[in-house]
From TrEMBL, chains A, B:
It comes from the Bacteria. It comes from Peptidiphaga gingivicola. Keywords: DNA-binding, Transcription, Transcription regulation. Gene3D superfamilies: Chorismate lyase-like (3.40.1410.10), Winged helix-like DNA-binding domain superfamily/Winged helix DNA-binding domain (1.10.10.10). This is Transcriptional regulator.
DNA sequence: CAGTGGTCTAGACCACGGA
DNA sequence: CCGTGGTCTAGACCACTGA
C-alpha cells in the first residue's frame, strides 16, 4: 500500500476545503456519506478527518456534523514557518512550496565530541562523535537564519560544502536512507549576539528567535540537534490546538 | 462513558513514562501485550499510543516496537508555555500545574464592534458586537504578559473586574457552559510599543512575542480573538513534529 | 425520533525487522 | 520464520442534536 487510503481521502478533502468547495463555516458531508463516496468504512474516513482536525481545517461536533473552520490566509511575506502544520518539512521544502528562493552559505564544518553541556541540552550521549556545522540561510537573498547543526557521525559520516549548501535533508533521505521519525522543538527569544548582528538582517531589533530541535530517525536514534537562530523580521510560527481527546 | 478507555490507558502509560518506569530509549510492551493488560483490542491501545506520540513521548517503529523518547526536562523558570502539548490549557492552569503564582490586573473593558480590519485579522463578521478587554498578567509578581481579548458578546454577554482578574476560562466553562473546540495560533516577534515598555518587564530587550489566537467553541462559533504580548524573558514554546501519517 | 459523531470489538491482511 | 507495528473492514452500541 503505497499511500494509505485515509491519506488519499485526507488529501482530497483538504483540497476541497482549501479550494472553497467546502466553504468556511459550512458542514462537510456526514461520515457515512463520505464512507459511501470513498467506498470505505467510517473508521477510515474518521482517520482522514482526524488529520484535517489536526491541521485546524475542521471541527467535529457530536450530533451535528463536521464544520469547516479553515480560512484562507493572506500570502505570507516569507515562508510562514519551517515547521508548518505539526508535520516535518525542511526549510527548503517550505521555501519551494511558497515560491521563495533559498540559498545557503556554509560558515564552518568540523568534527567534534559531545561534551557534558551539549549532552544535557541535546540528549545525546557524552563522548559521541559528531559533525558540527554552521550555515547562514538567505531567503530571497536576505540573510535571515543562522543554523547550528550537530549530526551524529555514525549516521552522517561526512558532509561537504556542496551538500551543505543545497539540501542536507535530501542527502540524508536519498543518499543515506535516513528518515525522520519525530522531532521536539522549543521556541525561545534571545538577545542577539555579535555574530547575529554581523551576519543576520535584524532590522534594528536586538533579539533573535531560537528554534531548538532534537530529531530522532525512524530507528529511534537521536541523530541531530539543531539550533536555528531566526531574525525576528517576518518570523511566523503557526500551530493548532484542540481539546485533547478529539485528536484520534 | 465518562472517560474513554483509550484516555485512561494514555494517562497510565504517560505516568509510567514520566516516572521512569519505562525508561528513555527503551521499548514499551508490544501492542498485543498492552491490549491484554488493559483488556481491550489493539485498536484501543493504538489510540492511546497515538496520543503519546502526539506529545513526543514515544516513537513507533514498524516491525520493531515502540520506543520511549521522552526525556525529563529541567524545571522551567516560568510556565514553559500557555499552550503545552498541542492541547488547550489556560495560562492559569499552566501556572498552577507548574507551581507558579499568577495574578491579573484589568486595564480596560469596553463594548465595541468588529470593524473591517479586526474582521480580516480575526475571521469574525463585520459589525458583530464584542467585548474588548486588556489585562496585565504577572507571573510570580513579574509583569510578563499583556493580553488583548475580544469576545463575542452573544457568547460572553458580560464580564467584570472580579471574573476578569481570576479566570475567564473557568467562568466561560462553568457559568456560561462554553467549551473550546479548536484554536489556531500564530507566534510572531514584534518591536515593543511604549505601552509594552511601560507595562511589561522586558529586561532591556526591545521586542515582545505576540501569540495571536482565534478560538472556536464546540458549537463551531468563532467567539474569541486574542493577542497575547509576552515579554521575551523566559518565553518558551514547545512543540512536537512527526512524519504525518503517524498521527492517527 | 432519526441522524450525527464518539467509542469499542473482533478479526483480517500487509510490511517490516530481526533471529 | 515469527513478532512487531500499519491498515482496513464490519458491525455494534452510545451520546448528542435538532426537528
Amino acid at each position: 500500500m503505497a499511500d494509505p487510503k485515509y491519506n488519499v481521502i485526507f488529501q482530497i478533502l483538504r483540497h476541497r476545503i482549501e479550494q472553497g468547495e467546502y466553504k468556511f463555516l459550512s458542514l462537510l458531508p456526514s461520515e457515512n456519506a463520505l464512507a459511501l463516496e470513498f467506498s470505505c468504512t467510517r473508521n477510515t474516513v474518521r482517520k482522514a478527518l482526524a488529520l484535517l482536525a489536526g491541521q485546524g481545517h475542521i471541527l467535529t461536533m457530536q450530533g451535528r456534523g463536521v464544520q469547516v473552520i479553515y480560512r484562507r490566509r493572506p500570502v505570507p511575506s516569507r515562508p510562514p514557518s519551517t515547521f508548518l502544520l505539526g508535520g516535518i518539512e525542511s526549510l527548503k521544502e517550505a521555501a519551494d512550496r511558497n515560491g521563495f528562493s533559498l540559498s545557503t552559505r556554509m560558515l564552518s564544518l568540523e568534527e567534534s565530541y559531545v561534551d557534558r553541556e551539549l549532552a544535557k541540552r541535546s540528549g545525546m550521549a557524552v563522548g559521541e562523535v559528531v559533525l558540527r556545522l554552521r550555515r547562514l540561510r538567505l531567503l530571497n537573498d536576505v540573510p535571515l537564519i543562522l543554523d547550528e547543526n550537530v549530526f551524529l557521525k555514525s549516521i552522517v559520516p561526512s558532509l561537504n560544502k556542496t551538500i551543505v549548501e543545497s539540501s542536507i535533508y535530501a542527502h540524508l533521505e536519498h543518499e543515506l536512507g535516513v528518515t525522520v521519525g519525530s522531532a521536539t522543538r522549543t521556541v525561545t527569544v534571545e538577545p542577539a549576539t555579535e555574530d547575529d548582528v554581523e551576519l543576520l538582517h535584524l532590522g534594528g531589533l536586538g533579539c533573535i528567535v531560537a528554534v531548538t530541535s532534537s530529531t530522532f530517525d525512524t530507528n529511534g536514534l537521536l541523530f541531530e540537534y539543531t539550533v536555528s537562530r531566526h531574525s525576528p523580521i517576518g518570523f511566523e510560527f503557526n500551530t493548532t490546538a484542540r481539546r485533547l481527546p478529539a485528536s484520534i
